[in-house]
Amino acid sequence: SYYAAFNALGLCKFISIGSASLEMIAKWISCITGWKVDQKELLTVGSRLTNAKRMYNLDRGITSADDILPARVMQLRQGNHPDEGTVPNIETMVKEVYQMRGWDEKGVPKPKTLKKLGLT
Predict the structure, then answer these.
(1) Hey, which of 22, 64, 75, 78 would disulfide with 39, CB 3.0 to 4.6 Å?
(2) Each residue of 21-71: pLDDT tens digit?
(3) Is 42 helix (H, G, I), strand (E, B) or coil?
(4) Are 119 and 55 in contact (CB under 8 A)?
(5) Largest Cα–Cα distance in the chain?
């Protein structure tokens, strides 16, 4: 949601690494546009965008089976690193993301999630 709001605003994500907080960005938007927005509303906008994109992708045939990382990322790490030989547990991570976003186990936004975001 955080970076979805950045994308919609056309902002460079590198400013989030620096000192520009979401609260500051909300103030900038209010000053520039007159749109009285706070950081909570920006996150809601990001959630709406994420869910709208998901619904669009589902409509186009993209499913939870496509929620994978490229094979190269899934290869065992090489080198002198404490995590050498480990790969992320994608299944667990995907399930957690679905749950955080209010999606079902197949990655479909739940009706109550869509209703809460005004996307019915």
Answers:
(1) 22
(2) 888 888 988 999 998 999 899 899 999 999 999 999 999 999 999 998 887
(3) helix
(4) yes
(5) 52
Output the six-digit token pair for 20: 């520009």
Measuring CA to CA, which residue among 45, 16, 34, 47 is closest to residue 25?
Answer: 16
Helix axes 2-9, 39-59, angle to 10 degrees: 90
Residue 38, SS3 per DSSP: coil
Provide the whole-model pTM: 0.80
pLDDT for position 101: 96
Q: Which helix (H) or strand (E) holds 63?
A: none
Q: Where are the alpha helices (DSSP H) in the chain?
A: 2-9, 14-17, 22-33, 39-59, 71-74, 90-101, 111-116
Rounded Cα distance, 62 and 56, in Å: 9
Q: Are 120 and 114 in contact (CB under 8 A)?
A: yes
Q: And the tokens for 9?
A: 């605003």
Scan for tokens 């790969």, then name that residue.
Answer: 87
